[in-house]
Amino acid sequence: MAARKGDSDINNILSSEEELEEALCVLAGSDPENCSYSKGYVKRQAVFACNTCTPSDAEPAGVCLACVNKCHDGHDIFELYTKRNFRCDCGNRKFGGFQCQLNPVSPLNLNLYSHNFRGIYCTCGRPYPDADDQDDNEMIQCVVCEDWFHSRHLGCPVAEPEELQEMVCEACMNKAPFLWTYAARIAVPPVIHVSDPEEEVQVDVEGEDNEDRHRRGEEPSFSEEPVNRSSPGKRTHEEMTGRPAKGTTKIVECKLKELQARGLERLRQGAVFWPYSWRAELCTCTSCKRAYVAAGVQFLLDQSDTILAYEKRGLEEPFGQHPLMALINSMDHVQQLEVIYGFNELTTSISEFLDQCASEGKTVTVEAVHQFFEELKARKRRRTSDGNQ
Questions:
Q1: 327 falls within a domain
Q2: Residue scoring higher pLDDT (370 or 150)
Q3: Taking the CB of the first residue and of the last residue of the chain, which one, N or C, has fewer CB atoms within 10 A?
Q4: Which residues contact 315 (CB under 8 A, 6 or more apart)?
Q5: b/e for 106-134, b at 16 or more Cβ within 10 A?
Q6: How do 63-64 and 42-50 pair as beta strands?
Q7: Is 125 left (phi over 0), alpha (psi -120 to 50) or beta?
């Protein structure tokens, strides 16, 4: 389903094994131990921004999962979910004298940076979570610009989660206007305006051929089998050989032209929600491929670009086979990061506890472990109490 951020309560999160599974899915596809810089511009990975090292008045920068764990532990971190074609910035000139612990200082990268790297989202430019916003905080990610939008700022009704896979915001739809043509047929819901209802019926009449369309002054449909006007019993050169006759060019079907010929339109307003496998419906003819490149959305033709494909790859990796992954499967993606932060904090605290016992020569007893967890609970209650004041 579409990537969503929602209100989160850490107590509710930890009480649900299914939610805990989903919390780690977004991180399973990224390496938690090794900086991703050497891999170049990674097709998709979990990306973070560090407000401690690169505050809002500095140049925007992003770091990989491993660097968040190793280099920026305890810093003020913005989770950015995943970004495509991103190279880790940790330790480059944007960080001043800060040194990456996993990788030598690197030159500046050619990443794309948005206001998300400042910790703000949506057309309203607000942070998430927003302490000043008392309304529903659900946010949905655009698969093109990868910004997050409040559902109330999408300019359209929000489809039910089980009906959709991805969302494209209005601004990105207008940057690739041919997507509106596809939206009239396959988006959720297909809000269609037909200028002449009778014309649509005629277009869809079974058995109608291109000659009939030509008489009405319409474009031909390239999806139809060509009508053989030769006498019965004769076959064309192409039918006999499977190749066009010498000196002729075989017409390549264009799904976009076919949809345009049907005369269906969708109101070009608001974000658009797309069903599962919608990318497979996009035309891949040479002309359309050029249009995708010109609009900067050629990645839409890559089925492995989707979030679900990224998470599936992660679950096939060794990290994804960790016993914890048996617990995770249905949490929104901000909750995922909140849980992983909590998990990292817990493991850090346990490591510090064990190191302290070792340095003091103490034996780790059951009573000491119980006391340790009681202190963690008390610390959490104090933080919760302070946050409610």
A1: yes
A2: 150
A3: C
A4: 25, 28, 321, 325
A5: beebebebeebbbbbbbeeebebebeeee
A6: antiparallel
A7: left
Do both 284 and 371 map to the same domain? no
Q: Where are the alpha helices (DSSP H) in the chain?
A: 10-14, 17-28, 65-70, 170-175, 178-186, 197-203, 210-215, 237-241, 255-261, 286-295, 307-316, 333-359, 366-388
Say if residue 352's pLDDT is above 60: yes
Give per-residue pLDDT as tens, 243-297. Answer: 555 555 555 589 999 999 988 888 899 999 998 789 999 999 999 999 999 999 9
- Report residue 141 as tokens: 């990610």
Could you give the CA distance from residue 139 to residue 158 in angstroms, rounded to a whole number? 11
Asked if residue 232 and residue 133 are part of one domain, the reply reads no
- Supply the range of the domain harboring residue 66: 1-165+306-389
Torsion region of 39: left, alpha or beta (phi above 0 gives left; psi -120 to 50 gives alpha): alpha
**Assessment of whether the complete model's pTM goes beyond 0.85:** no
| Tokens (6 digits) for 244 | 């066009």
Same domain, 274 and 219: yes
Question: Is residue 285 located within the same domain as residue 311?
Answer: no
Sign of the C-alpha dihedral computed for residues 249, 253, 256 and 262 taken in this order: positive
Burial class (CB in 10 A: 0-12, 13-18, 19+), 29: buried
Between CA 86 and CA 45 the distance in angstroms is 7
